[in-house]
Design goal:
The chain is an alpha/beta fold and 206 residues long. Helix content is 44%, strand content 15%.
């Protein structure tokens, strides 16, 4: 499970200078971003954490050069600088060539996290490995295990019927699964089963 491996990297303080994470589900990219942000003390985020959205860039090489310029600039008070590059899949070939040049010789005091909705292009992939390339999408079995983990984290236990229901109404969308479990969190019982599902939301047997 890519997300679990990435969390382990977060626990180690992100030893690599750059990471590439991709998922079709924006929830997992958001979750990864939260993990990155959580590693930075709140009082330092204003000057040591920056985010760039490549989907909203001009599409010119100058946009990625600006990002690299930030990465190569020394951080305030000698601390590590973190740059999050969103929608990396929107980069053009020329951008990717410039970015690959940076990955070959990354700034020692900067962390670059690239987020995308699909796997990296070949030019970037050859510079990545099992330690800094993470596919966050999950198959159904992994998604069910993840949902059970979310429930446990909320102090809840969920039985198979209730989990089947949640999977059915959410269509396997991680953000909606999380939201449904959060709604059930307000129930008095910590053991969730079909009796905790409102009748108006139960799947029709017809």
């Amino acid at each position: 499970m890519g997300l679990k491996k990435f969390i382990k990297e977060a626990e180690k303080g992100f030893p690599s200078g750059f990471y590439f994470l991709y998922s079709k589900d924006p929830f997992f990219l958001s979750e990864a971003t939260s993990r990155i942000t959580d590693k930075i003390p709140p009082e330092k985020r204003s000057f040591s954490l920056m985010a760039f959205d490549m989907e909203n860039s001009s599409g010119s090489v100058s946009a990625i050069k600006d990002v690299i310029g930030v990465l190569n600039t020394a951080g305030f008070f000698g601390g590590r600088k973190t740059v999050i590059l969103k929608n990396t899949q929107a980069l053009k070939k020329a951008d990717i060539k410039v970015l690959s040049g940076y990955l070959k010789d990354p700034a020692p005091d900067s962390l670059l996290v690239m987020l995308a909705t699909k796997s990296p292009p070949a030019l970037l992939k050859e510079l990545l490995n099992g330690h800094n390339l993470f596919a966050l999408d999950m198959k159904e079995r992994e998604l069910r295990l993840w949902a059970e983990g979310v429930a446990r984290g909320a102090g809840l236990s969920i039985d198979p019927d209730a989990l089947n229901y949640i999977m059915a109404i959410t269509g396997g969308d991680a953000g909606r699964i999380y939201s449904e479990i959060e709604k059930l969190r307000d129930r008095k019982s910590t053991r969730l089963n079909s009796s905790h599902i409102p009748l108006s939301r139960m799947p029709s047997s017809a």
